[in-house]
């Protein structure tokens, strides 16, 4: 434990941990917005359970982030008391829910990355990171199984569901590339053996995605344009609305508990 | 307190085997395999618990139930420790626990079928339309169908039986 602390800059490790935790926090919150609104009861429950897993993982990542930072902030303080510019989630997870197809496509593109990332992190040089990943990867495998299944069923479904899934893919595609771009913090944790270089995850992600899209009869857009910024705190306007909703209680009634 | 007067660990395990899981009360916390260790640290009983799923909302209640049960048996000092690694697996669920689940109407986990994210194999399996074979806990039929990957809790999936037509929960292998 101590050796990992020494081998890597504390700020870079904090950055990495908040990127992991903010992805699961914001996606978990987004998915939870479906609670009571999904097209069928079983999917409503599945969405809520997926959100729950993601929020649970957030507690582990942000809990460790607070510990590493050493300024007395716990997972709750990091989730509820930071402003948008301090959030490190990728732009993909803050995309609006749209219709059920858009929510699922966003989930699938994320799950494929998440599973590959967590699998790599189970071999992290920092045992605290490795044990969170070993826990989370089992849950992420079920998320990926579910979202792949539904992307295939809806993509290779009716004309209407196919058209909606293709539109969802076209909409979401340019927000994925950000997950594979490395910066100084990524290079620092990669050099310390704590996390893989983001770019190294792309081939495996592409293999999963192209296989599922082929079965789903969907075509990946050819445009290479990438929206980026979330991982360094430059967000779309959507994040502000998410935070206004998510943080309201703790901001209006500091320290409120029940 | 002198060591000689402390309850034995076997006794403690027996007490814990009577604490029901708050979500699936036919199972005890010991059946579920989430109590990983009990030991004495001087006169404090240390109970190590591992979460089932990282977001399981029952975790807080489980800790409270353990503390309350042990206090009721006269253990004044209890310390709960969370252990993440190795992560919980349904392999740790006791044979007795699996039978209790089935009798309660929940299909127990089918071993070695945990999702592993290998979607190449997955896509083929889905394309063929087949599902994992989970026997109906009511009539025993193998003619069942998955309705959703997630059921009433994150640890379960929704199934329906094509023979007796009853819906049921399946406790997923993880």
UniProtKB/TrEMBL annotation, chain B:
Transmembrane segments: none annotated. Coiled coil: none annotated. InterPro entries: Fe-S_Maturation_MIP18, FSCA_dom_sf, MIP18-like, PaaD-like, Zn_ribbon_PaaD. Pfam families: FeS_assembly_P (PF01883), Zn_ribbon_PaaD (PF23451). Residues 10-72 form the MIP18 family-like domain. Residues 128-172 form the PaaD zinc beta ribbon domain. This is Phenylacetate-CoA oxygenase subunit PaaJ. It comes from Xanthobacter flavus.
